[in-house]
Amino acid sequence: MKSINCKGELIDLRTPKIMGILNLTPDSFYDGGKYTSEKEILLQTEKMIDEGATFIDIGGYSSRPGAKHISEKDEITRIVPVVESLIKHFPNILISIDTFRSEVAKQSIDSGACMINDISAGNLDSKMFDTIANLQVPYIMMHMKGTPQNMQNNIDYDNLINDIIYFFSKKINKLREFGVNDIILDVGFGFSKTLDQNYELLQNLNLFKNLELPILVGISRKSMLYKLLDITPKEALNSTSVANTIALLQGSNILRVHDVKEAMETINIVKKVI
After folding, report:
1. pLDDT in tens, the chain (274 residues)
2. Residue 1 domain flag
3. Active-site residue 222, yes or no?
4. Distance from C-alpha of 5 to C-alpha of 3, rounded to nearest angstrom
5. Catalytic residue among 101, 106, 221, 256
6. 4 is a domain residue
7. 101 catalytic per annotation
8. Can you tell me the distance from the alpha carbon of 164 to that of 103, in angstroms, rounded to the nearest whole number?
9. What is the number of domains present in the chain?
10. What does pTM read for this prediction?
């Protein structure tokens, strides 16, 4: 299955698409606190759409290692007004919501978003799968063990690739029982993984195609890039493009990025050679 239904529009993922990141958190690892006013948010969103983003992914809860926990109410207060504003200014926009909370998901979809991006694959909210089934929206589920606060203490695997494939297989079966149609997989680069494990995942990403679902890759400016190269997140654009190229060659369908223009260039070049 390589297409998803967003608000009645079928999005063909056989040609890779871009998801632009819009962080509303003050403490994200790269662009925290950068977009706080409505004007800044609208300008950045317009820029990403103009540069070729199909989806805009809005996050109100920082999931970087050790990030501060915030309440559900605070997360809703950050996200919902922005969704409403973007829908008003860009009526055709396709908004994804980066949340692991079912109530945040419900209120965001009710406000005009069309997709949920859950870093916990339902593990941090037992009502999430039922909520997604009722909303009938595409669902991105990511592999992570534990919570953002303790995930880097959970890095032991019997076999990294097999364990994550088994994790997804169980989740897919459960989602199908709930009646969820559109499922997208995210192997979770940087979540409950060591630097070497992240590269093992990138090297073997094509094996996840056996699950016959679209694959999203979120690798943009992450520590697996800047720590390896001994640079900062701000200096990690070139390495992001390299990693995204590898991900595309391994069969990924969506790139979740901070830098849309460069990701679009990467897709266009890779399309020319495969």
Report:
1. 689 999 999 999 999 999 999 988 765 544 545 567 888 899 999 999 999 999 999 998 877 666 677 899 999 999 999 999 999 999 999 999 999 999 999 999 999 999 999 999 999 999 999 999 999 999 999 999 978 777 777 789 999 999 999 999 999 999 999 999 999 999 999 999 999 999 999 999 999 999 999 999 999 999 999 999 999 999 999 999 999 999 999 999 999 999 999 999 999 999 999 8
2. no
3. yes
4. 7
5. 256
6. no
7. no
8. 27
9. 1
10. 0.94
